[in-house]
Amino acid sequence: MSVMKRMSMIFKSKANKALDKMEDPRETLDYSYQRQLEMLQKVRRGVADVATSRKRLELQINQLEQQQNKLTDQGKKALQVGREDLAREALSRRGGLDGQLNDLRAQYQQLQGEEEKLTLASQRLQAKVDSFRTRKETIKATYTAAEAQTKINEAFSGISEEMGDVGLAIQRAEEKTENMKARAGAIDELLASGALEDYSGPRDDIQAELDRVGSTGPGVDLELEQMKAELGMAPAPKQLDAAPGQAQGQPQQAQPYQAPRPQQPGEGQ
Hints:
Elements: H1 3-22, H2 25-80, H3 84-193, H4 205-214, H5 217-231
Helix pairs in contact: 2-3
């Protein structure tokens, strides 16, 4: 296949595809229906023209028949008054009219037949046009419904794709939220254990040490006492009872330090 033939085929295929996209079947049906109406109008106009010509011939025939009757009467009157020559002339003229009448009557019959044919064709064409109009409207309604359904399906397809993207975005947001919560919990644990120092406020070494010692809990002390008992070591002295007004199990408050009073003269002797 030559290059020109290939280019021609490609151009025709692309042009045909473009025409398919541009073509609306409803517009095509409406145009076809309009053309059929124009043809029907031409047929009806032809019927009217033939009927007009037939009517004109009918008037001419009537006029010639009236002249023929008049000449017949004139010939009779001429014979009554003894004018045979006038009667002969009247009959001669009437004979000429007979030929014209025969020709007009033949044309009249021909036009009458044409008129009947055109009338029948007009009726048949009218029935076809009416049937085409009904079918056209049915096809247009079906096409419109299918077009609407296609647009709805395309819209739903687009919504489904968008909802899929939204679902992925929500999933990513949830994963990031869980990661942030886990990271925040880990930082809190590191800060509580002392592995990570908090520089957001002033440092309190004493409180940090107390927090560390307090974090061991009573379980460690109990295990330590059991271990000493197994080794035969003396148990540690028990903690004094809490002072009155102080809750059991709470540490006693430290007494403020008092410096020793200097000895006065005469004391201690």
